[in-house]
Amino acid sequence: MAINMNEIIKAMKERRSIRKFKSDMPAKEDIAQIVDAGLYAANGMGRQATVTIAVTDKKLRDKISEANRKIGGWKEGFDPFYNAPVILIVLAEKDWRNRVYDGSLVMGNMMLAAHSLGLGSIWIHRAKEEFELDEYKDLLKSLGIEGEWEGIGHCAVGYADCELPKPAERKDGRVFWVE
After folding, report:
1. Residue 67's CB: how many other CB atoms inside 10 A?
2. In a 3-state reduction of DSSP, which class is residue 24?
3. Angstrom distance (rounded) from CA 169 to CA 173
4. Is 137 within 8 Å of 3 (Cβ atoms)?
5. Which of 23, 26, 34, 77 is geometrically suited to a Cys-Cys bond with 113, CB 3.0 to 4.6 A?
6. What is the residue-level pLDDT of the chain in tens, covering all 179 positions?
7. What's the N-to-C CA distance of the chain in angstroms?
8. How far apart are CA 113 and CA 147, in angstroms?
């Protein structure tokens, strides 16, 4: 079913970062649709210089969470992914000048897609620092991902275990028309 523009704008206005997830795993088909939405993000010169690693394996998910916690400097036991069972990691070619922009657009598409499927999401940083570590470079190699990559972000996904947060007031004075 095609989504009309009003539904897309509505999703943009309603989507919020979720900071409490149920441990229930979303359907693989839903995860695949979210990843696919990321593949259709706008990208500089049509280069498609990003990759996404979809992590649903709990052992690897927990290992990445612990590395992220240490990098962030939080106390032991804190989960920077807020119990989300799915971590979609976006990386971009390290030498591509538009890597952060392209990867950010992938992240945005995936967060909107998750919302449209009734799932919660949140962007979690520190993917850059993780993928500078040898063990995560080795993970890329084990997946057959060649070359030099920079981590852009983690899209943590799952079923929200909370009310959808209310939007913050939009600040005035952020739009200037030149007609």
Report:
1. 17
2. coil
3. 13
4. no
5. 34
6. 565 668 899 999 999 999 999 999 999 999 999 999 999 999 999 999 999 999 999 999 999 999 999 999 999 999 999 999 999 999 999 999 999 999 999 999 999 999 999 999 999 999 999 999 999 999 999 999 999 999 999 999 999 999 999 999 999 999 999 99
7. 37
8. 29
| Residue spans per domain, the chain | 19-128
Residue 147: Cβ within 10 Å count: 10
Amino acid type, 15: R
Q: For residues 17 and 168, what is the distance between their CA atoms, to the nearest angstrom?
A: 12
CATH of domain 19-128: 3.40.109.10
d(CA 9, CA 35): 20
Token pair listed for 66: 């612990």
Both tokens of 75, joined, read 């106390």
Tokens linked to 85 = 């069972």
Decide if 163 contacts 18 (C-beta within 8 A).
no
Q: Over 132-150, what HEC string results?
A: CCHHHHHHHHHCCCCCCEE
For the record, the structure tokens of 6 come out as 């009003």
Give the pairing of strands 50-55 and 86-93.
Answer: antiparallel
| Threshold 0.90, pTM exceeds | yes
**C-alpha–C-alpha distance, residues 94 and 126, integer Å:** 15
